Amino acid sequence: MKRLRRNPDESDPETNPDPDGEGSFSKDQHERKCGLSSMKMMGFFVVALMVVSVVFSVSVVLQDPPSDGVLESGKNVRFLDVMESSKEEQVLEVQPQKVVGPVDDDALSIEVRKDKLLGGLLAAGFDETSCVSRYQSVLYRKESQHKPSPYLISRLRSYEALHKRCGPYTESYNKTLEKLKTGHHLESTDCNYLVWISFSGLGNRILTLASAFLYALLTNRVLLVDPGTDMVDLFCEPFPEVSWFLPLDFPLKNQFSSFDQKSPHCYGRMLKNNSFANSSKSILAPFVYLHLVHNYDDQDKLFFCDEDQTSLQEVPWLIMKTDNYFVPSLFLIPTFEQQLSNLFPRKEAVFHLLGRYIFHPTNPVWGLITRYYQAYLAKADERIGIQIRVFDTGTGPFQHVLDQIIACTLKENLLPDISTEKPIINQSQKSKAVLVTSLSGGYFERLRDMYWEHPTVTGEVIGFYQPSHEEYQQTEKQFHNRKAWAEMYLLSLTDVLITSSWSTFGYVAQSLGGLKPWILYKPENQTAPDPPCGRVMSMEPCFHAPPFYDCKAKRGIDTGAVVPHVRHCEDMSWGLKLVDNESEL
């Protein structure tokens, strides 16, 4: 009689030297002819072999369960291998089955890529427990179609070395700081700085900080970030070893709130008074304040001229205040043109790549993100984000806004219509989770009730979820901004996105997620526009207050018609945004 095989691996000669389980019995038959004594000895030998074989087989079964036990019906998938190996990249391959969790459900062959460095975008060597999101976020996203260029990777590593050499409290930092304290121009140093002032709402701050970092990268300056009231609470350190936060004892910190166009060191005012143009290198001001807020004037806007950039190179400290994503206008400065082309062959991926490099949620914020995702979004077949920002005065929700949202989702086939006449017999197995973000809870409630009270014509099951509804923007409240940052990030994890015109909140979500959203056009006179929404040209944010000036001709010009990759925005006709010009790729 043959022994029952307990494990499919028993056919492997390396794990089971007797794959058929018959060898010991043939020996027993042979020894029966040789006498009782020999038969007894052989009997003991056979029993011992059988015991050893059974014990070995059981141990193999327990230590190496069959692969079909790992993904049973897609219910027990957990990322147990999140602990990083010594390798910078590790690939875990599993069988193509339905997976519930932070993995691309649409993949034909599910390959959970733990490319924790995002194709070389991120630097290795961080303490992973201090900022879990830095390397774990890849588990919650589809693989990005926009890879960092080799030149961008090289420049980021070079910048990290510069930041380490010149960051806060280094010898170079302390030496350059003396220029501020004494007010005199000392001998040149190898470190110049750009200080970003924390200003405006969270969405604006994220966009302007990315703009400031790109400018620092282009001009070989060290970026130092004013921590404001909550920046340390929201964002991890992006650079290895040396902090990017401005020290609390920085000499000018107490003046930040008073800096405006009337400040003596404001670049625009200095140009008006000819005090900057007439300065020689020996008496050049130790710092210049750059006023790039939406109300800046024509002199302030000369910052975007080639000649002015050459003059600013000599200033050791630039202090910047802005509420604009001014990246598109950097692409119109001839000095930066070639470098930007090398950094970003695909123009629409600028914030997508810089945002994923710089902005990592702190552990408390990451907890808000992952807990909500796992509880409400992970099991859905498709995740849809609807970001609602209403600029109308008065108490919402507004019927015309709700009508616009419904019209957009139905016209673009983003959500199925409902059936109000007869029940749907053949229920679809597909589910969609709709994440709604809004200061008001009214839109979420109306949409939820609509799809709860009526079946969909397709039989799909639609669930609506809203993490918070704060009723009004509370920029200075710490937990309010934690939830705002978490909701932007959650929106970026969706498969399909609908955003609102003029909203920096939506810009951040779409760009981080690498998504081209449908944008809800701004209503006029409390009437839903027709069409209600449209697909954007690119995922890049819009520069709301760009200059319209030809620096060479010294006259006004349409800056949205100068180069093919800088166009006017879909939601703001005078704004500028980056797009990909296929002929340049």
Automatic annotation (TrEMBL):
<keyword id="KW-0961">Cell wall biogenesis/degradation</keyword>
<keyword id="KW-0328">Glycosyltransferase</keyword>
<feature type="compositionally biased region" description="Acidic residues">
    <location>
        <begin position="10"/>
        <end position="21"/>
    </location>
</feature>
<dbReference type="GO" id="GO:0042546">
    <property type="term" value="P:cell wall biogenesis"/>
</dbReference>
<dbReference type="GO" id="GO:0009969">
    <property type="term" value="P:xyloglucan biosynthetic process"/>
</dbReference>
<keyword id="KW-0333">Golgi apparatus</keyword>
<keyword id="KW-0472">Membrane</keyword>
<dbReference type="GO" id="GO:0032580">
    <property type="term" value="C:Golgi cisterna membrane"/>
</dbReference>
<keyword id="KW-0812">Transmembrane</keyword>
<comment type="function">
    <text>May be involved in cell wall biosynthesis.</text>
</comment>
<keyword id="KW-0808">Transferase</keyword>
<dbReference type="GO" id="GO:0008107">
    <property type="term" value="F:galactoside 2-alpha-L-fucosyltransferase activity"/>
</dbReference>
<dbReference type="Pfam" id="PF03254">
    <property type="entry name" value="XG_FTase"/>
</dbReference>
<keyword id="KW-1133">Transmembrane helix</keyword>
<dbReference type="InterPro" id="IPR004938">
    <property type="entry name" value="XG_FTase"/>
</dbReference>
<feature type="region of interest" description="Disordered">
    <location>
        <begin position="1"/>
        <end position="31"/>
    </location>
</feature>
<comment type="similarity">
    <text>Belongs to the glycosyltransferase 37 family.</text>
</comment>
<dbReference type="GO" id="GO:0071555">
    <property type="term" value="P:cell wall organization"/>
</dbReference>
<keyword id="KW-0325">Glycoprotein</keyword>
<protein>
    <recommendedName>
        <fullName>Fucosyltransferase</fullName>
        <ecNumber>2.4.1.-</ecNumber>
    </recommendedName>
</protein>
<feature type="transmembrane region" description="Helical">
    <location>
        <begin position="42"/>
        <end position="62"/>
    </location>
</feature>
